[in-house]
Design goal:
alpha/beta, 5-stranded mixed β-sheet, 11 helices
């Protein structure tokens, strides 16, 4: 029954998050979490925020975190916005920079929250089809007819990166509107567009600390851009909730940014494991697209992806399946520990043999 719902949300199809299981232990390769825990410095910082400090509101500006981010990225705090995960940052950006009733553009295969935001906020959109190889048709974004452009780079769920030269081409072709570059997975081998934010005042780069810094449970997202864009995000935030980040998240995010050695070590381990897994899957006959993320996008020509996803679940391994046109025979496989991925590959090989596909 939707009789008390506003007309704005009656037709909304909400985003569906990946399964978070209860009551059974799984190897979780379905939600792009980091297989390694956060830095020990993060755990210590969270511990210092217990007790009496929790009766007080957090800093609404998250000053300490923004200063740490400024040092890490060689920017000023005025060029940085932080929020409750990159999902919230993206939602604020859609409200701040895209007009209801006007049309923005993003790919047909990309992060599935984008159309949800647009529908919720009354923003029209064109889903521009990716090419057959799942790369972005850049020329389709360069006509200047859109009221905004959103590009996930590396893209989700494919993991494919668009070169910075092509990102800049889109930016230059749309000088009067915001070009939002969602870089949730950039730390796993991609090239960031951060270098464009001072050159082009219409560029907003969004990142997250959930993936490469193992803080999915803390919900810390960042946006980088011209101070005018950051002010726009703050205007939306402070019209909604001034305290979007709690004290624990601010402390955790600050400590994670300061421990550069741990960040480099763990992301390098994920990248190395990813490449070994690519080799193993290709040896088993899978088509695996090149990935600059902490996941793989893979399809087997003889084994239906949905069957494989369900069979793996029965064996205690979760991977992500999208029942959508063009990608309904693909699995998105998050990169776990080396041991996780060895188990995954062994179970996949056994399933293929069971079906007579090897």
């Amino acid at each position: 029954m939707k009789e008390f719902w506003s007309s704005r949300i009656r037709g909304i199809v909400p985003y569906t998050p990946g399964e978070q299981p209860r009551g059974r232990t799984f190897i979780k390769l379905n939600t792009n979490e980091n297989p390694y825990g956060p830095s020990p410095a993060v755990v210590a910082a969270i511990g210092r925020e217990t007790g009496d400090s929790l009766r007080l509101y957090p800093d609404p500006e998250a000053t300490e975190l923004r200063q740490a981010a400024a040092r890490f990225y060689d920017l000023t705090p005025e060029e940085i916005f932080v929020g409750n995960g990159s999902d919230e940052v993206l939602a604020f950006a859609f409200q701040a920079f895209f007009e209801p009733g006007k049309t923005i553009a993003f790919p047909d295969i990309t992060y599935s929250f984008y159309p949800v935001y647009a529908d919720l906020f009354g923003i029209l959109y064109d889903r521009i089809p990716l090419k057959e190889d799942f790369t972005l048709p850049v020329e389709r974004y360069c006509g200047g007819e859109y009221a905004g452009v959103v590009v996930c780079n590396p893209n989700a769920p494919t993991g494919i990166q668009l070169p910075l030269t092509e990102i800049e081409r889109i930016i230059r072709a749309n000088p009067a509107v915001v070009v939002l570059v969602d870089e949730a997975y950039i730390d796993f081998g991609g090239e960031s567009a951060l270098g464009f934010i001072r050159q082009y005042p219409n560029v907003l780069v969004v990142q997250t600390m959930s993936k490469s810094r193992s803080l999915a449970g803390m919900r810390v997202g960042l946006a980088f851009g011209n101070p005018n864009l950051i002010a726009g995000l703050n205007a939306v935030k402070n019209s909604f909730n001034s305290y979007t980040l709690d004290r624990l998240a601010i402390a955790a995010g600050t400590a994670a940014l300061e421990d550069r050695e741990y960040f480099q070590e763990t992301r390098s381990r994920v990248i190395a494991t990813r490449e070994r897994t690519v080799d193993s899957l290709r040896e088993m006959g899978f088509l695996v697209h090149p990935s600059c993320s902490n996941f793989l996008f893979a399809s087997h020509p003889q084994v239906p992806a949905q069957w494989l996803q369900q069979a793996l679940r029965e064996r205690g391994i979760l991977v992500r399946y999208f029942n959508q046109p063009r990608i309904d025979n693909y699995l998105r496989i998050s990169i776990g520990t080396e041991a996780d991925m060895e188990t995954f590959c062994r179970e996949v090989a056994a399933l293929l043999q069971k079906r007579g596909s090897v």
